[in-house]
Automatic annotation (TrEMBL):
Pfam families: TctB. Keywords: Membrane, Transmembrane, Transmembrane helix. It comes from Bordetella genomosp. 2. The chain crosses the membrane at residues 9-29, 41-62, 74-92, 98-118, 125-147. Residues 10-145 form the DUF1468 domain. Coiled coil: none annotated. This is Tricarboxylate transporter.
Length: 154
């Protein structure tokens, strides 16, 4: 068998490895049942599904119908921008609150895209702030600082 799509093949292998890792680690926790899930139930099955997805993706890369391509050189700048944005988010979450920290995370990590656009980055940031509010504050009722601490609006 010949690997026709290296990108799909290695993506599938990565999904497979991560899925197996999480399933094995989660198997060490109490499983429970579908009706009364234990702490290991959801991560175990999520890992199994991810591993199966990885197998499917890797096998499709071997089919003769797969589009032949190569993997481009790894861009370390993109990795640095995304990891830096996540670290910055963690550092700014308390002083700036969820809204501003989330907005900055999205805009800064968007700079890593080859198709970066300020309009799209700002729109995505606003959407994620609204979604975070609806999902975590309204939907789940979680309590955490939403606005900068120096404004006293929490």
């Amino acid at each position: 068998m010949r690997i026709r799509s290296r990108q799909d093949f290695w993506s599938g292998i990565m999904f497979l490895a991560i899925g197996v890792f999480f399933a094995v680690v989660a198997a060490g926790y109490q499983m429970g049942t579908a009706a009364r899930m234990g702490p290991g139930y959801f991560p175990f099955w999520l890992g199994v599904v991810l591993a199966l997805l990885g197998v499917v993706v890797a096998l499709t890369a071997l089919s003769p119908e797969a589009e032949e391509n190569h993997v481009d050189r790894f861009d370390w700048r993109i990795l640095a921008v995304i990891i830096g944005a996540v670290i910055l988010y963690g550092l700014l979450l308390r002083p700036l609150g969820v809204y501003l920290a989330t907005f900055l995370l999205v805009v800064i990590s968007s700079v890593a895209s080859h198709d970066f656009s300020w309009k799209v980055a700002v729109a995505n940031g606003i959407f994620l702030v609204v979604f975070s509010y609806l999902a975590f504050v309204k939907g789940l009722g979680l309590i955490f600082p939403l606005w900068p601490s120096f404004l006293g609006m929490n």
